[in-house]
């Protein structure tokens, strides 16, 4: 991500949004995406959780493909995408998305 921040047009191309938009979304969801550290491992950061999910949304690639790219287990990617999507919906739906109707 740090390398992509140097080149905003690459960030835009890779994640299908500007870095400013990314940080605006991150500010809204960071607290709900933050996990506690344990003695055994450091948690995946809120930034990386959001990046993983946004890349999944942008490409639709499988969780297994995402796991190779982000160097995380495929079940970890699955959990991150599902949890982050729920947080995004919970935080952004009332402000930006109307409730779905039949």
Q: Could you explain the architecture of this structure?
A:
The chain is an all-alpha fold and 102 residues long. It has one domain (2-31, 45-96). Helix 3 (19-33) crosses helix 4 and helix 4 (46-59) packs across helix 6. The model has no long low-confidence stretch (mean pLDDT 80). It has six helices and no strands.
Nutshell version of this structure?
By secondary structure, the protein is an all-alpha fold. It has helices spanning 2-6, 8-15, 19-33, 46-59, 63-70, 74-96. It has one domain.
**What's the helical proportion of residues?**
over 70%
Integer count of domains: 1
Structural class: mainly alpha
Strand content: under 5%
Shape: globular
Radius of gyration: 14 Å
Q: State the major sheet.
A: none
> Uncertain segments of ≥5 residues (pLDDT<50)?
none
Annotate the secondary structure layout:
Elements: H1 2-6, H2 8-15, H3 19-33, H4 46-59, H5 63-70, H6 74-96
């Amino acid at each position: 991500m740090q390398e992509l921040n140097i080149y905003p047009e690459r960030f835009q191309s890779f994640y299908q949004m500007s870095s400013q938009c990314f940080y605006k979304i991150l500010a809204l969801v960071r607290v709900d995406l933050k996990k506690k550290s344990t003695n055994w491992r450091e948690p995946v950061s809120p930034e990386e959780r959001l990046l993983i999910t946004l890349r999944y949304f942008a490409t639709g690639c499988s969780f297994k493909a995402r796991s190779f790219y982000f160097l995380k287990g495929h079940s970890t990617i699955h959990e991150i995408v599902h949890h982050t999507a729920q947080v995004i919906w919970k935080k952004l739906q009332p402000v930006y998305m109307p409730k779905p109707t039949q």
